[in-house]
Amino acid sequence: MKVEAKLLLYLGLFFGAMGIVYWIWSGENAGGMMLMASMALGFLPGGYYLWWGHRMTARPSDLDDASIADGAGIVETFPGSSIWPFTLGCGTFFVGLSLVFGVWFAVPAVALIVWAMLGAVSESRRGGGHTHNAHG
Amino acid sequence: MTELIERPAADGGDVVVVDDHGGAGHDAHEHHGPSGLLKWLTTTDHKVIGLSYTVTSVLMLVIGGFLAELIRIQLATPNSTFVSLAEYNQLFTMHGSLMIYLFAGPFAFGGLANIIVPLQIGAPDMAFPRLNALSYWLYLSGSLIMLLGFVVAGGAADFGWVGYAPLSNALYSPGAGADLWIAALLLTGFSAIFTGVNLCATVFYLRAPGMTMFRMPIFTWNLLVVGILILLAFPVLTAGLVMLYCDRHFGTHIYTVHGGGVPVLWQHIFWFWGHPEVYILALPFFGMVTEVIAAFSKKPVFGYKGMIFATITIAALSLGVWAHHMFTTGVVLLPFFSIMSLLIAVPTGIKIFNWIGTMWGGKVRLETAMLFAIGFVITFLIGGLTGIYLASPPLDFFTHDTYFVVAHFHSVVLALVMGGMAGLYYWGPKVTGYRLNEPLGKIQFWLWFIGAQMMVVPQYILGLLGMPRRIAVYPNDPQWATLNQWATAGAILMGVSTLVFVVNFLYSWKRYPVGNNPWDAQTLEWFTTSPPPHHNYYSLPPIRSERPTWDYNHPDQRSLAHGHHEEPAPAGAPA
Amino acid sequence: MHSTPSRPPGAGRTTARRGRLGALALIGAAMLLSGCTEPSFGAYKSVTSQGRSTFHLWQGFSIGAIVIGAFTLLLILWAALRFRARGNDETLPRQTQYHLPLEVTYTVIPILIVFALFAATVVVENKVTANPPPATVIRVYAFQWGWQFTYPSTNFATPTVGFSIRGQETNTPEMVMPQGENVRIILQSVDVVHGFYVRQFNFSRYALPGVQNIFTFNAQSTGTFFGQCTQLCGLYHSLMFFKVRVVTPAAYQQWLAAELAAAPITSSIAASASVRQQLDSGVPVKPAIGAGVN
Q1: Which of B211, B405, B442, C241 has the fewest CB atoms lying closer than 10 Å?
Q2: Which B residues in the span 48-107 are in contact with C, Cβ-Cβ below 8 Å?
Q3: pLDDT tens for residues A85-99?
């Protein structure tokens, strides 16, 4: 994770330096503030990756000479087909309408969003409609 | 329905990647699950989502293009009454908004990126597939909401795609159209932010064994940087929009003088997002063009590390140039933004020279994808050079808000569309398993390329002659009329080009099947089938450079090693 | 360079060089022909001294842009056409991936060019934005959808007009200025953001609500010059014209005296002192626009 960490940290450092120069030179607070916040966005995950990168063993995707067999085994669990993103999307559509046409649209909006949140969480917990185990 | 993705161990060499339905070679088409419409509504497959994004965004391109044709008809004659003043303000607002918010971004980082990035790094899917699907539904919702503006009383938003305060507040732009515009951008903004999360997480966590960061293709590198830029910039726009909404409806005084606010704050916030946004738009197309030029020159990307350095530099600098859109406000620090904006020309130049270097000494095949890529480089060069003028405040003072600026950014975005077409012609066969017709593609290219220059060159001249932007009518000056007519003719050529593309798409439907690697291309995605199986790879080659497919197909033609690596092993040695 | 593409000896090289020179000659001719009598590269020579400096900066930038652009464009076309795959040629070219000295060169040279452009920019920018002691001060108020020019030392204001059609000169708000003297403009908006743009002065500046933008013109020649609003400001943005009429200092004093003698307009936006005070303190004034605007 060292490359990832360096990428984010150097970006954060650059934004911080640019932000300080800009803020002092211009005295303009909005831009100065936004640049310092950008610095924080680089430092936060970058610092985490730096900390974690030192503590983890190199993954096969970090090694120059890793073979495909090194990455054998379960890669990840990926949620398969799921109705909840669409449901949540419908809910946010109604949120958009509620911003424009009247707050009563927030009723179906909140209903759909809550329903989708509950559905998605329970889907994650029990692995969805039916669970599959890998064989072989 | 969750799926476990497993790579069974083997004795070495290629390994089979299977989905949860069995052992090696199991036919993924026996996948249980929904079909038809329900399958589309519940998909979490990045390829399907990416395809949905591509189709929807191209539809937005067509609608936005239609609005452009209406604009150009209005401007073809002086004092035209083809549309009213009010309608015209809606036309250019919605044209710009559709093109930038609903076409260019989603096509670049939601469409092709979704499909190609996991393939290029050997991942089975994006890191957060359901979040990915949600991104698409947010984008579709936002698009519908923005288009609703055309059917409400008072019409669509009409304050320009930038929505400057105070014009965009409740006093000067009452009506639902403006609020629909804001709501649409809030939704599409979150769509983009979630895609940014997915891009970063996927690239950081799901690379295949041996696919180190400095072996990723340039397209993926560019999308990683785009993901970071999205996370930096889009929340700023969202915050600014929320504040605008509050000013409009909750009686706050953030952007109004009365009550102690600062109207120009909107411009600072908007452009702090707005300038990284244009690089969010441009970098994916840069990446597409890089891949196409390398593949069709039969050479590696020239200056691979320099390209990555240039991309990161562009992204870093882009956060510090926003007020070059505000030089004429009189309240920004001119020299700071001037030097930063001029400096961005340097990494952009590095990229252009690297594209030249990639072609240099190669075996260039001028197929449609490559024509579009070269057309992109030429047109972007012109647009980029005119951008350098705009980075100088005194020169910006008399070109700002004239057709010179309109021509500059149209040079650039028309180039981006060419880059997008290069991407479609190049990766279309990988995604669908079928090529497009080549002669029709070449006709489409020439119509677009010639039409683009025919439109922007007169517009540069018009701007220098003093024609402001966003005006519905102009005085009866024969020189202005002639130049505007040339521009309209160019726009019509581009419209015809788009029709040719649609014809090509329909004509070529399932007509020219292709194998895994019709272009003898170099990056990992060309190793798998066309189209790829459900979780992308039945087998992976060894990954020892940034061109794993090329190394596999041409083991005696490896690229010259990077400075600190050893010479690659000769053909036949174990990976 | 690491890669030496195979070229046919002798004749091929000469043909290539001739082709390149021919292309350069064509481009040079086109440039000369399009530049007509003087290499203005499209911009206007400008009436004001500030605008004249801007014009020279434009010329310098243009020379650089054309040289760099033509050079790069030729490289692109050369690379795309010279190295085309011939027919059924299946051999692979040398897989050159990098050339560090070359890459460093085309990183460093653009940086140097950028600093040169920036230095020139700063010099001109300081001239254009300077505000030396003025002979005359004119306050410009932009509003939806017209302009008002106020001469504070005299408490005189031009009539308020709504939008005007260019060509109907009697309707267009007109600002009168003396030639050869520093004229300071104090620009302000009454409502939304507008753009004060005079093409022949090579200049524009936003009229912002709550902000006074101050700049100086020193017009070198007399004449009437058209201006227009360049920042989208609503329905009649396209019709927000104005004129600037530069006259000799003597004629200017005559004009000023004559206008003072006539009754000053009181129904205008900024004529009354109390309204002006509100504007200056940042309180917005929703103008009662006169006839002709709906």
Answers
A1: B442
A2: 85-86, 88-89
A3: 999 999 999 999 999
Confidence at residue B123, expressed as pLDDT on a 0 to 100 scale = 94
Domain boundaries, position A20: 2-59
Q: Note whether B301 contacts C: Cβ–Cβ < 8 A.
A: yes
Percent of chain C with pLDDT over 70: 68
Provide the β-strand partners of residue C207: C194
Containing domain of residue B401, as a range?
A: 49-550
Q: Kindly report, residue by residue over B1-31, the tens digit of the pLDDT.
A: 455 555 544 433 333 344 433 333 334 444 5
Q: What is the pLDDT of chain C when averaged over all its residues?
A: 78
Looking up residue B305, the CATH number of its domain turns out to be 1.20.210.10
**Chains A and B touching, counted as 3 or more CB pairs less than 8 Å apart:** yes
Tell me which DSSP letter residue C165 carries: -
Domain ranges of chain C: 13-82+99-129, 136-280
| Cβ separation C98–B298 shorter than 8 A | no
* Angle B435-B441-B445 from CA coordinates, rounded to 5°: 145
B248 has pLDDT over 80: yes
Q: What is each CA distance from B126 to A73, B140, B204, B471, B537, in whole angstroms?
A: 18, 20, 11, 45, 14
For the segment C261-272, what is each residue's pLDDT rounded down to a tens digit? 665 554 455 545
- Mark which residues 23-82 of A lie under 8 Å from B by CB: 25-26, 28, 30-31, 34-35, 38, 41, 49, 60-82
Q: Tell me whether residues B336 and A21 touch, CB distance under 8 A.
A: yes
Q: Tokens for B308, please give them.
A: 């990555």
In chain B, whose CA is at the least distance from the CA of C282?
B257
Domain assignment present for residue A97? The answer is: yes
Residue of B nearest to C166 (CA): B475
* Residue C22 forms contact with B (CB below 8 Å): no
Work out the minimum CA distance from A8 to partner chain B, whole angstroms: 9
B365: contact with C, CB 8 A cutoff: yes
pTM: 0.89
Contact criterion met (CB < 8 Å) for C125 and B342: no
Instruction: Specify the number of domains making up chain B.
Output: 1
Q: In this predicted structure, what is the pLDDT of residue C26?
A: 54
User: Does pLDDT of C7 surpass 80?
Assistant: no
CB B437 within 8 A of CB B508: yes
In a domain, residue B466? The reply is yes
- How many domains does chain A fold into? 2
What element of type H or E holds A78? strand A73-79
- Position B259 scores a pLDDT of 85
Given the candidates 3.30.200.20, 3.40.50.1240, 2.60.40.420, 3.30.1360.70, the CATH classification of the domain at C136-280 is 2.60.40.420
Q: How far apart are the first and last CA of chain A?
A: 31
Q: Report d(CA C66, CA B385) in Å as an integer.
A: 9
Which chain B residue is nearest to residue A4, measuring alpha carbons? B204
Q: Is residue A71 part of a domain?
A: no
In the numeric block, which tokens belong to residue B269? 């916030």
Q: Are residues A89 and A54 in the same domain?
A: no
Region of B386 (left: φ > 0; alpha: ψ -120 to 50; beta: rest) is: alpha
Q: Does the CB of C172 have a partner CB in chain B at under 8 Å?
A: no
List, in sequence order, the alpha helices (H) in B32-175. Answer: 36-42, 46-75, 85-97, 105, 113-121, 129-148
Alpha carbons B571 and B555: distance in angstroms, whole number: 5
Burial C224-233 (b: 16+ CB within 10 A, else e): ebbbbbbbbb
- Mean pLDDT throughout B196-209? 96
Q: Is A66 contained in some domain?
A: no
Stretch B290-304: mean pLDDT:
96
Contact A99 B129 (CB under 8 A): no
| Min Cα separation B113/chain C (Å) | 25
**How do the residues of chain C divide into helix, strand and coil, expressed in percent and rounded to 5?**
40, 20, 40
Would B21 be classed as within a structural domain? no
ipTM > 0.85? yes
